[in-house]
Structures are given as structure tokens and as C-alpha cells.
Amino acid sequence: MSGAALGIEIVVVFFLALFLLHRYGDFKKQQRMVLFGTLLAWYLCFLIVFILPLDVSTHKTVIFHVCEHILCSYFQSTQHVCYKPWSYIPDGIMPVFWRVVYWTSQCLTWLLLPFMQSYARSGGFSITGKIKTALIENAIYYGTYLFIFGSLLIYVAVHPQWRLSWYELQTIGITAANTWGLFLLVLLLGYGLVEIPRSYWEASRQGHLLIKTYFKVAKLMTEKADSEENLEDVMEEVRKINESIKYNHPLRKNVDTILRKCPVEYQEKMGRNMDDYEDFDDKHNTYPTERSLSKLHKQVIYAVQRHNRTRVQWQILLEQAFHLEDVAKNETSTSRQFIHSFAPPEPVGWFRRYIYTPTVEWYWECLLKQWFYRILSVVLALFSVAVVWSECTFFSTRPVLSLFAVFIQLAERDYNYLYIEMACFITIFFLCTCVYSTVFRIRVFNYYYLASHHQTDAYSLQFSGMLFCRLTPPLCLNFLGLIHMDSAISHQEKEQTAYTSIMGSMRVLSFIANGFYIYYPMLIVILCIATYFSLGTRCLNLLGFQQFMGDEMTSDLIDEGRELLRRERRKRQRIEDGESRRREWRERYAQRDEIAARNRTSMSEMKETNYGETLNSNTNRQAKYTRGSSQTGRDSIELLQDAETLDFNAKTLTDDPLQSEPGRHAGGRYLSMSSSRSRIFDDV
């Protein structure tokens, strides 16, 4: 089993990163380079988080080697038996693994992802144009790094007493990157430690959650109208350029590229108004340049992406609001069966038919879900308190005040490696949840926004990858400091983990190791207090950014959202009523068509029967009037010799005029073929 845990976690983490990327990104429309860069950044960061507990437990197996040596020397005097844990990783694997993962993530976050971000956001029409735009945008970015690095080298060269080796320069670079990451880490962690337990507590209050949803509906409606107006303005500019640049203009291929990025309905409108027979030289107009077309291309991509995102979010928010209103109505139901206002768009599967029945759904939505969220909120709040306490006291080693360090040391005494791994995993998973969930929640206007259901743009995906790569290494170092596994912070002469050996000794910069890394995390207390009292939300509300502040502060938007939701409900109800009426008419006409088809079948059968009887009667009559060959020949001769005009007023009719006397006049013998007029239609 040596190394099996490492291989399993590598595979599991890959599929976890792939699942999240599929949820937020769009595999069909976005560029492969953007998806690959984001997937690699997320995968490496999640890998560091999941593998670090194995590194800690492997480090603790040094106790196993010491204990094994003692057993070999004093086998007669000891009764303790040491065993190798199933997740033990052989020596030499973890240092190489951490070195590859760490430096790959740092190259991504500081070099490749910024360039790829500018490349994906560029409005160029060719690869060369996009690369040129990306290099120009990142010139200041990379120039700053080169200036700092060059100044550092000059400073070291001027002062020979420093005598910094390559290892020490590498450690200084790692320390600078971790310092920047720790500065942002404390801000995000202070927000997440309070907001995550509070969000679950508010989710248990159905009334409060419904009011907040009304506020979101009104706010999203404003954003949706703004995105539609922005799209109309951009499409108007595209229409003007499409009409001015004709088919034989050199920039026409760029215009066609822009048109392909437009929605289908706008493409059809613009395609109908084109006059391809006109030449661009016939009229002396001012034509746009390639640079202006690139700018317009960028605006089209942004406007279409924003419009699609708001449209999808509007539908999702409406479904959530309708569901919350259904929960409020079903809470007073005496039948204890959950009734939905609208039928689900998808057919009911076996899970909802046999397991998640309406009765089970009622008990979960109206009774159990609230208590589950409350219990979960209390547990998460206790974890948050433990983290805040440990962040303020992790530098104290005698006595040990950090709660997580106490738990690890208790497991170390009993040689319980499984407990060490589980305690480390739960702790670092909670820290990562607080930090990463804040990254997924924050929104910097419309430039950075992670939206689910495949609605995140390329810029936001790569920016999140940059943040993850910069936040994860200092987060892991902070975790190791909480459990007293970082000798640079705990000041204890212990065997270092493979991760801390790659990070280097922070004692090269003593003012950072002994000052910033110890006292700066204490600011998390102030940030938690500010988040608890919603100081940031209140400041944004004062600056004009609408934020949810309760019933009284945002009553106008809540009423507006309620009215918008009522309007959408009536609209959807009319649509469903129309569909039901059309369905009823189809079923009714289907029954009529079935009856008519059955009648037609029976009538055709009756006609076939009558036709058979008619054939039989004609056969019998033909046999009745059959004569000999001589008689038939005589009749034929009479017909040929009869040249007189037919007398239709003849009064004498015989049953068989052909058998009349030879001297009698033959006129009028074709007036009737039967004995009387009343029997003319008997055979019909």
C-alpha cells in the first residue's frame, strides 16, 4: 500500500477540479487554452491542500523509525508494538512532488496566467494581434517584477558582506510571494469564518431567506435591463459598421468575425439589410480602422457574455423564489405532501417517484431542513471560534494554547496516524472552504465574477486561478503554524515536513518570520468583528451600492421584487394554462380523428360488401339476358341498320325490345333498359 493514498488522492482531486470547472466554465464555447490554464491552476492548489495531511502523517512516522530502533535495541524490555501506517509515503517522493507542484503553480500565477488573461480578453482578430495586445498590457506588470529583482541583485552585489547564495535568494523570493498571499489570506479568512456559519443560519429562516430573495430579484432585474440596454447599444454600432463596410472592403473579414459573435436574432436582422452589390469605393465614407474594430470586437464579447449570464441567472433566481414561496405555502398544509406551483420542466425520475416522494419532500423542506442547517451552523461557528483562538495563540509553545496543536500532539502520543490525518484534513479543509468560498462569492463590479451554470467568462476563470495559486502556499504554512509543525514560527528544533523544507527557512528574513507572520494573523479578530456587524455592507450601501440591510432599510426593493415575482408567476401561469388547453384540444381532436378513422374503415368495409353483392346481381341479370349466338348476331345487325332518330316520347315500352316483332318500328327502344321508371336506381 506504499504510495497508494497519494495516487488515489491525485486522481480524486483531478476529477474534483474538473467538476468545478465544468460547473463554472463552458467547455463548448471557451478557448481550450483558457480551460487548460484554469484547470491546471485549480488542480495544483487543491492537490496541495489534500496531500498536505499525508505529508504531516508521513513526517510523524519518524516516530515509527525511532520506535522501531528502540524495539530492536530493547526488545526484551518494551511491550509497545509500532506499525507502519497504510498511507506512509517512502522517503524522497514528497520533496520532489512539492517542488514540482509549487514551482509550477508559481509560474502559472506570476507569468503565464496574466499573459493568458490578457490574451483571452483581447479583441484581436489573429493570434499575432492577440499576443501583441497581451504583451503591451503586461509590459508594466512584468517590468515591475524585473525592476524589483534587478534592484535586489544590485543591492546584494554592492554589499559583499551579505554573501547571499542562490538558495537564500530563492527563499527571499518565496517569502515575498507568501507575504503578499498572507496579506490577502487574512482578509478573506476573516470574512469567511463569520459569513459561512451565518449563511447557514439564515438559510434555516425561511421568511428571512424569502425576503432576501425578493431583494435579489429586484436588484438582478435592474442589472438585466442594464445588460439588455448595453447589448442594444453595441449591436447598433455593429449594424452601422456592417452597413458601411461592404463585401469587397479589406476589413470585411473582421466585420464577419464580429457578426459571428453576435446573437442569432441580430445576425438575421443585419443579414437582411446587407446590399452586397454596392462597392465600398462608390461612396466616400469614413471607414473604421482595424484598432477600432478590435475594440468593438472586445465590447461585443463582453456585452453578449453579460447578457447571457444575467438571463440565465434570472431564470435560476425565479426558480429559487418560486420554490421558497411554495415552501411557505406548504408549511401550513395538513396533508403533509409538498405541492409545487408549477410542474417540473423535466420528467419525474425514479428517485422522486420512489424515494423523494411528496411526503418525504414535505418533511425535509418544511421540518428537517431548518434544524439541519441550524445544527450545521452551530458546528461551523465552533470551528470558527477555534480557528480565531488558534490564530491568536499559535506562537505560544509553552504552554500549548493552539487547539489544533493540542489535538495533533494527543494523537502523536498514541501513534494514531489515522487520527492525525483526519484531524489535519478536517482543519485544512475548513480553512480552505472559508477562503475559497469567499473567492467564489466576491464580485468586483462586472470585471471579476464567478457565476455557475457555465456563465463565467475567461477573464474571471483565470483570475480565480491566479488567486488560488497565490493564496494556497501561505494558507498551508499558516496551517502548519497552527499545529506547530513550522519550526520558523514555533521556534522548536523539530524534523521539518517536506513542504516546509521546500519553502525554505524563514529565518533568512527575521523581521518577517518573527514579526509579520506572527502578529499579522491576529488582525483576523478585527475582521471577524467587522464582518459580524456587516460594516463592509453598510459602507457599500452608503456609497450607493445597493446591499441587503434587512426589512426596514431595503423595503422599497423588497416590495419591487415581490411585485416582479408576482408578475412572473402570472406570466408563467398563463403559459401553462395555454399549454394545457392546447394539450386538451390535441387529445380531443386525437379522439375525434380516431373515431373518424374507425368510421372510414367501417364504411370502406361496407362499400366492399355492397360492391360484391352488386357484382353478383349483375352477373345473375347478365345470365338472364344471355342468348344464342344467332340471336346476338341478329341484334347487332339491327343496331347497325337503325339510322332513324330516337323517339323519346314513345308510349309503348316492352321488357325486351330486341324481341319485338320484325315489322315493328324500332324507334325509342333505348329509352329504358328496365320494365319501369321506378326501378331505374335499384342497382345503385
From TrEMBL:
Q: Has the keyword tRNA processing been applied to this entry?
A: no
Look up and give the membrane topology term.
Multi-pass membrane protein
- Segments carrying the region annotation (Disordered) are 653-684
Protease among keywords: no
Q: Which biological process terms from the Gene Ontology are attached to this UniProt entry?
A: adrenergic receptor signaling pathway
- Quote the cellular component terms of the Gene Ontology held in the record: membrane
Coiled-coil regions listed: 217-244
Cell compartments where the protein resides: Membrane
* Keyword field: Coiled coil, Membrane, Transmembrane, Transmembrane helix
Segments spanning the bilayer are 6-22, 34-54, 100-119, 139-158, 170-194, 371-389, 418-439, 516-535
Q: Which family does it belong to?
A: Belongs to the LIMR family.
Protein name per its UniProtKB record:
LMBR1 domain containing 2b
